Amino acid sequence: MIVRLPRSRRFDVHVALGGLLGGLLLWGVGLATRPHTEVYVLLPGRWPVLLPLAVMAGCELLRRSAPLAGLLIGTPAIILDTVTQGNLVTILMYTDLVYAAVLYGPPTSAHRIPRITGLLSVAGAVVPLAILREPEALLIGVVIGLVTFGPASTGLIVRNHREAAEAARLRAGQTALLAEMDRTQAVTAERARMARELHDMVANHLSAIAIHSTAALSLDDPKTSQEALTVIRENSVEGLAEMRRLIGILRDSSGDTEPAVFPTLDGLGALVEGARANGLDVTFAATHGPVPAPVELAAYRIVQESLTNALKHAGPGRVFVVLAQRDGVLTVVVTSPYGEHDGPTAPGSGAGLVGMRERVALLDGIFEAGPEDSPDGKIWAVRATLPVNDPAEGDTT
Hints:
The chain has 11 helices and 5 strands, in the order H-H-H-H-H-H-H-H-H-E-H-E-E-H-E-E. The chain has helices spanning about 5-30, 50-60, 65-80, 90-105, 105-130, 140-220, 220-250, 260, 270-275, 295-315, 350-360; strands spanning about 280-285, 320-325, 330-335, 365-375, 375-385. A 5-stranded mixed sheet has the order 1-2-3-5-4, with helices on one face.
């Protein structure tokens, strides 16, 4: 079975083999970095050069997997090479080990190695100069700097660039993720808004149609059936018109869309009259000043949904609708008799209360709905408190 090494591992093997073969080639043709007569050559002859060369080639195999170990093993080898006639490839491989230790090693070593090699370069220039008192002694520090500090600095620069590129990639990924989350939230919020609008605009008319159609089918009275059919037709036409307006808005139509989709508190009178035409006994009272459009829409829909629920579920008796604005809030209260309806009713999905609660929550208001005791008996009460900014203050956003 053939085992394929990772690409990075294969590259390290190629570097080691290339260094070893290149060093052997220079050794074979007799090229050395120092003549055998030099005073610093403690191990003259051609054969001692091969030991540091072989060790350095072996260290190249560790340049990525264990860079610090490779550098620690390679350092004695380069020192050994300095007391032989020397091999240029051995020096080049050591510079690569220094570079790899900074680039692939731990972060602490990546910043520590350039400082250490910098100090060694300075010491290699100052100490020989102080001892030998000759300007040529400075070349020792230059050579040490070229072999150690130069590769270490290069490795640090490359590492910093790679880390900056990785950080930028992560930021781009996070930005894309946040954008996708915002898009998903926006789509979800828009779907919830459209669900509320569809329910609030159409449920009232469909409930009236269901109730009066049941009455027309169950009562054998031509006059009552005629009145029920009249109400059914009116609600059908109005519901169809509102649906067309909503579809027009979804298609970015320029038609007459404002009255159905953005009703105001001025339209509550017509809404109450429609509820009375559907058979509810409604008492309506409103005292308020100018309010922001979102508050108007929420208040209108709360009254509309409450009247629809009263039409479907309330017992016999009077329905009260009260709007009052005071101390920076608009209060909406709709009460109806609680009990079993004595006439035909339409089924409900429970989405009405959810929609009202969501509308109030979006405006940071307070919503309550449930049965209560009153002097006239048990009632179902819907109460919404909507914060209202003073229009005279203007928009400061």
